[in-house]
């Protein structure tokens, strides 16, 4: 464990910009509760500071700035917190989702450099900027919402932003956890453009000055976008992932003769059957919600992920164990088959544990 008093968020003011570097490269900048608090504090301080006109966020790679953005939340902490009964687990999700909403409504341009790994919680601090913001991907971007692989669902507002991808691409990304490129991200509205990674240092420096920043924005918007395999598969994705249930999706994929369909079905068969069903219901609901409403729903859902079946009996605990703790990559999902999940099991995740006036995120929106 790293020392808790060590800051992994470096904040500085340069010219008219507030600049944040996530500085936990050994963990691919995975977010701890302390990092969430430090990033929130910086954004709140700069929000009302007339000297600050824009905010930039990047990750520190193992060889220097850039190269990795954020691999998500600190799932090892989740595992330890469940075993220890650590109340900070509750704080983590409440404060993380509050941060996601703060970014969504931030009144100043929020510029995020999505170089390298951008997963889970890293999407939560990069996907939610306002129309004035700028999300920059590169040829090294590796983006995913892989939560169903650890018995979780795409949270941090994932239901909201994935549901707003073209067609049924959001359902495909949410259920499979498929890794996509910077070109894919730009094609499906998860990035605003793609710059060569060699230009990131200059782009970062340009944030300090308004005129240079506007030139950067124009460059990103006009830059040629790499080809997107994801966009090219849109018709097939829509055909399968627009079906009504997870069972229908998998049966249709398994009945198809193409290699892509069979491979996709095989991926889904490895994910948590229960959380596949929960995730599909989540996206279908979130498509018609505001972000604030979706985050409140996600806060209910994540509470159930850790408490509906207490302790080690939960899907999320088991998924993290298999992937990151024991690393046997052999999760014992319960139920074990997609066909064995009942509607009652799914609906339990959408019943709020709190009355509205006492909800942890009642003040959002």
Automatic annotation (TrEMBL):
GO molecular function: 3-hydroxyisobutyryl-CoA hydrolase activity
Record key words, sorted: Hydrolase
Gene3D superfamilies per the UniProt record, alphabetical: 2-enoyl-CoA Hydratase, Chain A, domain 1
Entries under InterPro entries matching the protein: ClpP/crotonase-like_dom_sf (IPR029045), ECH_dom (IPR045004), HIBYL-CoA-H (IPR032259)
Pfam family, one: ECH_2
TM spans (from-to): none
Domain Enoyl-CoA hydratase/isomerase: 18-350
GO biological process: L-valine catabolic process
Protein name: Enoyl-CoA hydratase/isomerase family protein
Protein source organism: Ramlibacter cellulosilyticus
């Amino acid at each position: 464990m790293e020392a808790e008093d060590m800051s992994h968020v470096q904040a500085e003011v340069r010219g008219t910009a507030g600049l944040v570097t996530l500085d936990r490269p050994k963990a691919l900048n995975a977010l701890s509760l302390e990092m969430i608090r430090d990033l929130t504090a910086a954004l709140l301080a700069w929000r009302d500071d007339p000297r600050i006109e824009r905010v930039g966020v990047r990750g520190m790679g193992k060889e220097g700035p850039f190269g990795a953005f954020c691999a998500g939340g600190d799932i090892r902490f989740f595992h330890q917190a469940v075993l220890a009964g650590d109340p900070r687990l509750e704080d983590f999700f409440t404060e993380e989702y509050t941060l996601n909403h703060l970014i969504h409504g931030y009144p100043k341009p929020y510029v995020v450099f999505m170089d390298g790994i951008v997963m889970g919680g890293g999407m939560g601090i990069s996907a939610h900027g306002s129309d004035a913001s700028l999300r920059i991907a590169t040829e090294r971007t590796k983006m995913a919402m892989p939560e169903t692989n650890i018995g979780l669902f795409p949270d941090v507002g994932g239901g909201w932003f994935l549901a707003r991808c073209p067609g049924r691409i959001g359902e495909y990304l949410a259920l499979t956890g498929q890794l996509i490129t910077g070109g894919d991200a730009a094609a499906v509205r998860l990035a605003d453009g793609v710059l060569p990674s060699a230009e990131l240092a200059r782009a970062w420096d340009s944030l300090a000055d308004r005129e240079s920043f506007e030139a950067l924005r124009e460059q990103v918007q006009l830059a040629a976008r790499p080809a997107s395999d994801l966009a090219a598969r849109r018709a097939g994705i829509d055909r399968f992932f627009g079906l009504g249930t997870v069972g229908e999706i998998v049966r249709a994929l398994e009945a198809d003769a193409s290699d892509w369909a069979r491979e996709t079905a095989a991926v889904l068969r490895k994910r948590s059957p229960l959380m596949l069903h929960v995730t599909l219901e989540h996206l279908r609901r979130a498509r018609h919600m505001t972000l604030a409403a979706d985050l409140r729903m996600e806060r209910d859902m994540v509470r159930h992920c850790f408490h509906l079946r207490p302790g080690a009996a939960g899907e999320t605990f088991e998924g993290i164990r298999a992937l990151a703790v024991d690393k046997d990559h052999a999760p014992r999902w319960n139920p074990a088959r997609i066909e064995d999940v009942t509607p009652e099991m799914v609906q339990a995740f959408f019943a709020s544990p709190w009355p509205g006036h006492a909800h942890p995120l009642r003040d959002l929106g």
